[in-house]
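Let's practice the habit of predicting before peeking. Look at the sequence and jot down your guess about where helices and strands might fall. Then scroll down.
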Amino acid sequence: MEEHLSRLDELVLNAIAYSLGVGMNCWEVEQKTGISRACSSARLNSLRNKNLIFDSKIRRPTDTGRNAVVYMKKILPDIDKADYSGDLFQ
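Done guessing? Here is the structure:
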């Protein structure tokens, strides 16, 4: 069952999804969506907790020069959470 997303979660997830595979950090989300940094951070945490985005291990500078986590949208479900019966190729 798909979890319902708030309007702001959806806005942030779509911004990351349409970042053409380069992902976004909190400052970039703020710039793209127009929502505050605190709200951007909260939305990123919410989406990460819902397993919809992940830490890409890339860091990019923010407007203050600090390197920040770049998040990317997951495109496949986690194998350990998927309903896998082992009969995939039979």
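How did you do? The beta strands are 53-61, 67-73.
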